[in-house]
Amino acid sequence: MKKGLLTCSGGFSTTMMAQALDNITIPDGIKWDALGISAGGFSNDTFADYEIVLVSPQIRFRFNEIKKICDSKNIKCMQIDPKLYVATQAKQLYEEIKLELAK
User: Which of 12, 32, 60, 69 has the greatest number of C-beta atoms within 10 Å?
Assistant: First the structure.
């Protein structure tokens, strides 16, 4: 099974999004984890086990830093559109994720 990681400032909102995405993506073979990383909390190895890392709107200011690490490890990385960062939009968010994974 592939693994995806959602990142946010504290981990609470991404946990809810991870659960909503799991309901849709597990049948397609993707499981989601959540991680709060606002004040650091990650290193070059944090993302190593993931196919894709999603950056929440709360920490978009860290996107370039996270993307640089992901690029060095050939891991997909994308920012989550704020309009899609609610559990009720998980299906639409997954459509965006599939497009990114297909690149």
Answer: 32
Task: Report if pTM > 0.85.
Answer: yes
Is the pLDDT score of 4 beyond 90?
Answer: yes
CA-based torsion, 83, 87, 89, 95: positive or negative: positive
CB 45 within 8 A of CB 39: no
The sign of the dihedral angle between the CA atoms of 50, 46, 76, 17 is: positive
Q: Which residues of 29-42 are buried (b: 16+ CB within 10 A; e: fewer)?
A: ebebbbbbbeeeeb
Domains, in order of start, for the chain = 2-102 (3.40.50.2300)
Q: What is the pLDDT of residues 42-67, one digit of tens each?
A: 777 888 889 999 999 999 999 999 99
pLDDT of res. 35: 84
> Taking the alpha carbons of 81, 91, 20, 32 in that order, is the dihedral positive or negative?
negative
Distance CA 77, CA 50 (A): 10
